[in-house]
Specification:
heterotetramer, A: about 325 residues, alpha/beta, 4-stranded antiparallel sheet, about 35% helix, about 20% strand, globular, B: about 260 residues, Glutaconate Coenzyme A-transferase, 8-stranded mixed sheet, two-stranded antiparallel ribbon
């Protein structure tokens, strides 16, 4: 296959589908109880140096509690798929947890502005960066999900995004058109936050899927955090609603408000005041250290974080905001 | 003439480009405001798509994120990023609005780094969905303040494709045919692209500005259309809807 | 791109994604009332010579009523995607409606045996045949859905299925592995049967999806037949349930029992007696002609077909069977 | 010794290959009966997948179609064909059972045509999902009557890959590594494949048959394992469950 061009970015994950098959061949397919604390799940399934995937989009249905736990356990030298990584990226940057990143969207928090903490860490020279786009990372996950080493796409060509990616370009043998070939991306470990899961890992969520279905399929190990555990009977009552089947899943962690301070659709809206506090505090190193201690390092788990930030009363308020109820206060 | 600010001007001008029945892929902020304004003016059947999966919501307020709950509030579908991007790739999406720290005469955009990639002066967010939208959507538009540090001879990093090096270079690149930058909307002017060279060209001048102002605030030479008109300022009706209905808290228009 | 091998089968549909984009650019995106009779929809959107896609799997959630209408209107020289085509294939063969076919699974009706009508027509020399597999046809639809001219896969290599397909084989530029390259398949017109749709074409169904999401995206024109029309308000109440967005759809036809005599999950089970009647009658040309006249050519529409075969009483019985109620009779 | 027929024998033998906690991709008929029997015997946690999208249903009865309602009755998931086939492609599915009108010494199967492709004596269904399952699932098994017209020197059309031309030919073909035919279960014997040549090899002989019977009913020379045992006939328990619970109407076992 003649390669017309290729990006000079580093490819952080081997796209060999036979190696992935070998790994999945050994994965337990039994219906076993996978419930554990998030602390145990991170301890057991996240190794220093692993390549990490984080579900959701921006700060929406994003497993924020998992990012906190990664910091608490001091995980280091991770690779990271920066697929519209906003507040999750900010947390992982605060902990300098990763040292290489596939960039689609990072540093920014969309309409909320840029994170100085994420920016400084990326500018520090401590992080290897390969450039992509949101959809090209989606397609890379999809390639791994399909068990093929690459998929073709028609974006990124002609740009520096291509030049600093690890994509290749070749002619289509059917049409003669140039295509960008995007290598499969299979994270070592990923976290996805959902509304409901059973003890085996059968999981479902409502609202937009972003790229979580492919992320779930592509990941070697997968940890589900969920707002609520549900019974296996309930999963079997409505199999059309299952989005992630149990055999992809290694751990199920019931973490209510696990996407806070982001939005969990149909549950709670984002806590914009708290995110604003993050954005302003991170500019002052001392204040930021104290802030991180108070919110992450010195709390035991996500319950502690929620209590630190207004507890259930605040959650009720964010629920009212999610449902567009008029504010009472 | 009504009193208005730069954002209100750009949003109003942008909104008029979105004809009824078209599809538009938007991000948060000004693009979303322009699409919402269009829906409330001449284009009630404008279809808004958000890259994370929301299709044609009844937006109750401005979204904070292109994936937040508002982007699929009473929507026709809460799909996936693949659903949206595949629709773009198949040619179903007519317009998109993008931005960037730098833009060149061919409409190429930089939102990745200022300075060198390995040792940047400023690290920016990267493409996000911008490169994807610009590659796939038929007509890409930009709303941005006119400023010589922003309109540059050469972007430090070409994140998102415009007409690449002009001429036929985009058609030869492998990107889908016949799609590309369409209009650049600033506080001073509206530009399109000359069809053969694909260079940026002034087609209308905003009230209160001269051709010289526009060129003075641009780091490269702008072409001029044969006939240059004055841009229609925001109408009373546009301003009322923008301020009262689209962005009552002034998140975008900053009032 | 160096091609290591290629099948000698004919490629019936041009996989050029720019041509597809040009077509979709012109497609109306407005929310307009697309309700019409199935007769009008077939008349308006199916042209002789078109390449046809049929949703569902086997005789499950399959738009059988649409196949009947295609016969009634005497459509000819169609291309056909034989993607686990069972009873639909049998009907279209009875009408000799197609003259070229991409084969994944044809002729058979799964556990019910082989259709002599389908077999005879394929053996007649009147039909051009290119070989594929169920998943490779799915991947071909997925390529068209993604707007790319091909997708790679790791099946079909090494077999006559490859040799008689229109696939190509090339090396992966990332891993050196051989891959089958499957060209995009975009039917000119497709039919998908669903539980519910609104007047604009926003459609939803329950149970397995088979390959209908990609079929919907890949098809140039798409006709939805549905058990029930629902309001747009109901679609907007639960946007997570929309499986097919309106802008893909050209016509919405309310056709209760539109999958009969096949199964419509959660609605009615297949009518095995009637299918058995098909299978035995088709062996006798005279009896078969009378059978087709009675069930298809001489009835006005699907209501007539249902009335001919036991009417609502029979449908109630099949509903009880679907829900595994004990038989009363 | 219990009285049993050929189907009951093959299904019982096949069911014992499916260890607890494995995944199996099955079609309707005998494969599904074998999987159901395995679940009710030693492998209650066997996971059944149907190619049209059903994952691990509580099967209330034998499905008629691999896509009918039964295939996702009280299932863990009602997904898509892509969901299933992608799982197979990624190496999540351990076993599959296939059939065909012809099989050769390398386990290649024909279900497309008897005779020439352009002018067939008999047109058959084609691959369906057989080629897909055989390409992707780790261990492909076949249940089929032993018959020289079925076990042929060369299949008229190689629909579905076995070990191709034997030796390393499958590994060189591009198909996923280390997957391939595993056991061939007939009314007379169980065969596996000699590891180097990948030729079919008798490993156990069913009660009432001799090695000569098996070879007489095979169109190519069968290898023989160093140690050939007698196949365990269906137990009383297997027969009771098969007849009373798995297939009470005798759709598959024909009683």
């Amino acid at each position: 296959m003649e390669i017309l061009d290729q990006g000079k970015g580093e490819l952080f994950v081997d796209p060999d589908p036979d190696k992935l098959r070998g790994f999945f061949r050994g994965k337990n397919r039994k219906l076993i109880d996978k419930c554990m604390t998030l602390k145990d799940a991170v301890d057991k399934f996240v190794n220093n140096g692993d390549y990490l995937g984080i579900g959701g989009f921006g700060a929406n249905r994003t497993p924020i509690a998992a990012c906190h736990e990664i910091l608490r356990q001091g995980k280091k030298n991770l690779g990271f798929a920066g697929h519209t990584a906003t507040h999750d990226m900010q947390i992982l940057s605060a902990g300098e947890a990763y040292d290489r990143i596939d960039v689609a969207y990072v540093v920014g928090l969309e309409a909320r502005g840029l994170s100085s903490c994420s920016r400084k860490y990326l500018e520090s020279g401590k992080v290897k960066i390969t450039e992509w786009t949101n959809y090209s990372l989606t397609v890379r996950l999809q390639a791994a999900a399909m068990g093929v080493p690459y998929l073709p796409a028609r974006n990124i060509m002609g740009t520096d995004t291509f030049n600093y990616s690890a994509a290749k370009m070749a002619e289509c043998p059917f049409t003669g058109k140039k295509l960008a070939l995007l290598p499969a991306l299979s994270p070592d470990v990923s976290f996805i936050h959902v509304h409901e899961a059973d003890m085996y890992g059968n999981a479902r969520f409502k609202g937009i899927a972003t790229s979580d279905i492919d992320l779930a399929k592509a990941s070697k190990r997968l940890i589900i955090t969920c707002e609520r555990l549900i019974s296996n009977d309930e999963i079997r009552r409505d199999p059309s609603s299952t989005k992630i089947p149990y055999f992809l899943v290694d751990a199920v962690c019931e973490v209510p408000y696990g996407a806070y301070p982001g939005t969990m659709p149909y549950e709670y809206f984002s806590d914009e005041e708290h995110i604003k506090e993050w954005m302003s505090t991170e500019k002052d190193p001392d204040a930021f250290k104290e802030f991180l201690d108070r919110n992450i390092y010195n709390v035991k788990d996500n319950d502690g974080y929620i209590m630190e930030n207004g507890g259930l009363k605040k959650m009720q308020k964010l629920r009212r905001k999610e449902f567009l109820f008029k504010e009472e206060d | 003439m009504a009193d208005y600010n730069m954002m209100e001007m750009m949003i109003s001008v942008a909104s008029r480009e979105l004809e009824n029945g078209a599809t538009v892929g938007v991000g948060t902020g000004a693009p979303c405001a322009a699409a919402m304004l269009a829906q409330k003016m001449a284009s009630p059947e404008l279809i808004i798509m958000f890259e994370a999966g929301g299709i044609s919501p009844e937006l109750p307020e401005m979204p904070i994120s292109v994936g937040d709950s508002r982007t699929f509030h009473k929507a026709l579908m809460a799909g996936s990023m693949g659903d949206i991007m595949e629709s773009c790739s198949r040619g179903f999406v007519d317009y998109t609005f993008l931005g960037g720290a730098q833009i060149d005469m061919y409409g190429n955009l930089n939102s990745t780094v200022i300075g060198d990639h390995a040792n940047p002066k400023v690290r920016l967010p990267g493409s996000g969905g911008a490169n994807d939208f610009a590659s796939f959507c038929w007509r890409m538009m930009v709303m941005t303040p006119q400023d010589a540090r922003r309109f540059v001879e050469k972007v430090d990093f070409m994140t998102t494709p415009g007409w690449l090096e002009g001429g036929d270079s985009r058609a030869e690149s492998g990107l889908p045919l016949d799609a590309g930058p369409y209009k650049i909307i600033t506080n001073m002017a509206v530009m399109d692209f000359e069809p053969v060279s694909k260079r940026m060209r002034i087609i209308s001048v905003n009230p209160g500005y001269s051709l010289q102002d526009i060129q003075d605030n641009c780091g490269f030479e702008l072409l001029k259309a044969d006939k240059i008109v004055e841009t229609q300022a925001p109408t009373e009706e546009e301003l009322r809807i923008l301020r009262e209905e689209v962005d009552p808290y002034g998140y975008v228009i900053g009032r």
